[in-house]
């Protein structure tokens, strides 16, 4: 009886110390072809357009090690405001503030997040550059960080995407070996792991299709192919076998 009581106590203490999981992560394998599914997507956003709301179109450009920029175009006035951003992969909005997640594959990899309270405080520029994957915008990248607040700047990791849940910003991270994947949040200017994801999902840059604030689908192809779909706190990873 004493042994049973002792084991029950240990189990109770262990259970109390376990933090509840923020995200419900599920996986499945299907007989589908990733390329065929991507080709069936009817509407991709224009190249360079990462985000828009009732006030702004938010565009991004990336020249890799030579820089990157994010541009806020006011829908009413047509004025354009730019900030240094190397290189934006995702833009989210919480309580009227914009959060730009940057990730640079060059070298050991680096990532950062900046906060913008008022885009009108950024550097004003006369016009947007021409956005096309085969046209270099290196000479037009801005070097100004005016009007921004740096929340984190880390090396050795890549932000694959970011999203909002319960008014909190979360990032999907990959280490510089392209193996370990996590869902992390920013605490004390550092990324802190919230939950781990399966290994070996994101080696190359994935395709992100975000159709709602609470929903996005990320297509990955190497070393395995499939999708990672986020809906609120539900995360579904689907591996494609064809």
The largest β sheet comes out as: 5 strands, mixed
Q: Which regions are unreliable across 5 or more consecutive residues at pLDDT < 50? A: 4-16
Using the CA coordinates, give the radius of gyration.
20 Å
Count up the helices.
2
Distance between the termini: 56 Å
Strands, count: 18
Helix amount: under 10%
Beta-strand fraction estimate: over 45%
What is the approximate shape?
A: globular
> What is the average per-residue confidence, as pLDDT, rounded to a whole number?
89
Strand order of the largest sheet: 1-18-17-16-15
Order of helices and strands: HEHEEEEEEEEEEEEEEEEE
Structural class: mainly beta
Overview of the structural elements:
The chain is mainly beta. It has two helices and 18 strands. The protein has a domain of 159 residues. Helices cover 9% and strands 49% of the residues. The longest helix has 16 residues. The chain is globular. About 5% of the residues have low confidence.
Provide a concise account of the structure shown.
The protein has helices at 2-17, 34-39, and strands spanning 24-30, 49-52, 56-62, 68-74, 80-84, 88-94, 97-104, 110-116, 123-125, 149-155, 157-165, 168-175, 181-187, 190-197, 207-212, 215-220, 226-231, 234-240.
Task: List the SSEs and their pairings.
Layout: H1 2-17, E1 24-30, H2 34-39, E2 49-52, E3 56-62, E4 68-74, E5 80-84, E6 88-94, E7 97-104, E8 110-116, E9 123-125, E10 149-155, E11 157-165, E12 168-175, E13 181-187, E14 190-197, E15 207-212, E16 215-220, E17 226-231, E18 234-240
Parallel strand pairs: 1-18
Antiparallel strand pairs: 2-3, 3-4, 4-5, 5-9, 6-7, 7-8, 8-10, 11-12, 12-13, 13-14, 15-16, 16-17, 17-18
